[in-house]
Prior knowledge:
This protein is α/β, with parallel strands linked by helices. Helices cover 42% and strands 15% of the residues. The protein has two domains: 34-67 and 344-451, Alpha-Beta Complex (Aspartate Aminotransferase, domain 1); 70-342, Type I PLP-dependent aspartate aminotransferase-like (Major domain) (Aspartate Aminotransferase, domain 2), CATH 3.40.640. The longest helix has 21 residues, at 431-451. The two termini are 44 Å apart. Residues 119-121, 153-155, 225, 229-230, 258, 260-261, 286, 297 line the site of pyridoxal-5'-phosphate.
Amino acid sequence: MNSTASTPRLRQLDRSHHLHPFTDLHDYAEKGGRIFSRAEHIYIYDSEGHRMLDGMSGLWCCNLGYSQERIMDAITHQLHQLPFYNNFFKCSNQPAVELAQALVEVTPPQFNHVFFTNSGSEANDTNLRLVQRYYDLLDRPGKKLIISRKNAYHGSTIAAGSLGGMSAMHKQTRGLDYVHHIEQPHWFEEGGDLSPDEFGIRVARQLEEKIDELGEDNVAAFIAEPVQGAGGVIIPPDSYWPEIKRICSQRDILFIADEVICGFGRTGRWFGSETYDLQPDLMTFAKAVTNGYIPLGGVMVSDKLTDVLLAGGGEFAHGLTYSGHPVACAAGLATLQVLREGGIIERAASEIAPHFQSRLRELEDHPIVGEVRGRGMFAAVELVRDKASRQRLAPESEAAIFCRDAANEGGLMVRQTGNAMIMAPPLVCNTAEIDDLVELLGRALDRTAAHYGIA
Length: 455
Ligand SMILES: *Cc1c(COP(=O)(O)O)cnc(C)c1O
């Protein structure tokens, strides 16, 4: 769209015909939204020409920003070469093969196989199929139950929404009855008087208690994001993952790491599982694998499972028309090449992320900031009225919504979850751009404090 004159018409048509995801449909039909029409580097532009610094990398996808010619070229080249062919019925294609190899090279050593999907949700559905098939082949069909966490996000198909722990989603759809949820490691919100480490141990041990309650012979797997993203960039207390690892190593269950946001550099290493030294049996990826330019997701499957799945024989009765789509895989391959050859993840971790984290920590002096937490290029800022008691500014996340709107108006795209502002800027930001982000967020905090009458 090139003409600003057509914006009112587009907005009208959008309100009339387009049902938006995770949106109040009534409200949107009345008020509409904002049309984005182009993007460059780390900036997005709406149809009226307003520029915003994108502090969310699209939706946790565009870790390399919006101007990666090499990925665009790979996509257009592949469209001319082989725009589509399926991977069913003993067929394959070069980009799918090459991306599979590249993913095996960049993921932890236990992973030598990948199953492709189009999204993170489908990848988590695929995890359920793989886990059940694995235990069936081992002749242990009783192991069917999955343990997940409240306020986790694993996608929005029925299965992925069931795996997730978003109460609003569970309220609107009846989920799978074989998924059980334990507490999340969100100390700031739920830790009460416990120290973060005490709280981390307490909620980790719920995994052990839940396994005992359900019976180890009935539990197939535990699924978790290394850092909950959509839930509010919840950095677990230091005690949490070691305790979960101890439990997983003592109990006979599989561990699925959902790396859809943490993967491809977000937390400072290639995968969150490396940042936290987890040893997952399955790893879900999507989003940044193609830098968001084309939909693609998948599951990395460890040797522990493939040893059984391949030896077992018989058809694995699961697949998607677009599993291993050549254009999506070409985009993924080019993304991995840019990440690897440019040393982007290592440079972001050693230079940009420390600057990002320390500049954000300066906001802890702000009167309405209760906590700044983060890891790598991933952060949250909790808003409070009273720092000591962690009392909130206003009920129903109202203050964070106000702050988000103020930030957006000021030219910064950030999100709000609960009472926190959350950020995941592109890994290709430079330090001056990080300074701009912190400055813009600071102004939004000032406006929010003034709005609630706090000096
Ligand atoms: C976004 C997300 C998903 C779902 O991916 P879609 O591509 O939207 O289906 C799954 N898990 C996590 C951790 C996510 O952030």
